[in-house]
Design a protein that fits this description.
The complex is a heterodimer of chains A (116) and B (114).
Chain A: E1 3-5, E2 10-14, E3 19-21, E4 24-26, E5 33-38, E6 44-50, E7 56-58, E8 64-68, E9 73-78, E10 87-94, E11 104-106, E12 110-115
Parallel strand pairs in A: 2-12
Antiparallel strand pairs in A: 1-4, 3-9, 5-6, 5-10, 7-8, 8-9, 10-11, 10-12
Chain B: E1 5-7, E2 10-13, E3 19-24, E4 31-37, E5 43-50, E6 65-69, E7 75-79, E8 88-95, E9 104-105, E10 109-113
Parallel strand pairs in B: 2-10
Antiparallel strand pairs in B: 1-3, 3-7, 4-5, 4-8, 6-7, 8-9, 8-10
Classes of the chains: A mainly beta (116), B mainly beta (114).
Chain lengths: 116, 114
C-alpha cells in the first residue's frame, strides 16, 4: 500500500532562513508526489508535484522540492522563509495504477512556524 | 474562474440526525473526491467519482456514509444517524481526468455532532 510520512509535527524557522519540511514515501511502482499547503480556516492549496524527470521541482510561492529515489524522500524547501509561509503543509502520494485519476494518500501534516 | 465550492461551510447537528453536504466542482473536472480531516490530523480519503465509472467507495468508514454525483457536476455526501466521531472537516476536491493532475480543494464543511 502507498504511504507517506512526515516525521516532524512542527518546524520552526526564523524569517529569512532556509526552510525544509520533510517527507518520505513508500510506493509500489512509480511515485507521483504532491505538496499542499493549508492556511487557517481555508482549504488545501496545491504547491507542486513530481511525476517524472528533473528531481528538483519548482512550485508556487518560491517553494521547491527535491525528489530522491534512493532515500525515498520528497522534501519541501524554500531558500528564504517568510512569516506569511506559516501554515500547515501536507505531503501526498497518488494511489492507484495508471496515469489517470487516483485518490491521494496524505501525510499527517507539518506545522511550519516562521518567526520575524 | 470559480473554484470548488462547498455548502454549508459549517453544520452543527445532534447525534442521530442525518446530514447532507454539497460539493460543486470546477466546471469541466470529471474527477471528484471527498476527504475527511479530523482535528489535528491528516486527510482521510472517503470516495472518488471518475466520469461514468463506478465510484471508488473504499474509504467510506461505515454504511452510514454514502455519496452521489449527478453526471459530472454536483456531489452530495450523506451521513446518516450521525455520531460524535463524525465531527470533522469534510473536504471536496476535483481534477481534470488526464495525466497526473493536481486536485483542487474546496474550503470544506466543518461538521460538529453534539
Amino acid at each position: 500500500a502507498q504511504s507517506v510520512a512526515q516525521p516532524e509535527d512542527q518546524v520552526n524557522v526564523a524569517e529569512g532562513n532556509p526552510l525544509t519540511v520533510k517527507c518520505t514515501y513508500s510506493v509500489s511502482g512509480n511515485p507521483y508526489l504532491f505538496w499542499y499547503v493549508q492556511y487557517p480556516n481555508r482549504g488545501l492549496q496545491f504547491l507542486l508535484k513530481y511525476i517524472t524527470g528533473d528531481n528538483l521541482v519548482k512550485g508556487s510561492y518560491g517553494f521547491e522540492a527535491e525528489f530522491n529515489k534512493s532515500q525515498t524522500s520528497f522534501h519541501l524547501k524554500k531558500p528564504s522563509a517568510l512569516v506569511s509561509d506559516s501554515a500547515l503543509y501536507f505531503c501526498a502520494v497518488r494511489d492507484g495504477a495508471g496515469v489517470q485519476g487516483g485518490k491521494l494518500i496524505f501525510g499527517q501534516g507539518t506545522e511550519l512556524s516562521v518567526k520575524p | 474562474g470559480a473554484g470548488v465550492s462547498q455548502s454549508p461551510s459549517n453544520k452543527v447537528t445532534e447525534k442521530g440526525k442525518d446530514v447532507e453536504l454539497r460539493c460543486d466542482p470546477i466546471s469541466g473536472h470529471t474527477a471528484l473526491y471527498w476527504y475527511r480531516q479530523r482535528l489535528g490530523q491528516g486527510l482521510e480519503f472517503l470516495i472518488y467519482f471518475q466520469g461514468n465509472s463506478a465510484p471508488d467507495k473504499s474509504g467510506l468508514p461505515s454504511d452510514r456514509f454514502s455519496a452521489e454525483r449527478t453526471g459530472e457536476s454536483v456531489s452530495t455526501l450523506t451521513i446518516q444517524r450521525t455520531q460524535q466521531e463524525d465531527s470533522a472537516v469534510y473536504l471536496c476536491a476535483s481534477s481534470v481526468q488526464r495525466e497526473v493532475n493536481e486536485q483542487f480543494f474546496g474550503p470544506g464543511t466543518r461538521l460538529t455532532v453534539l
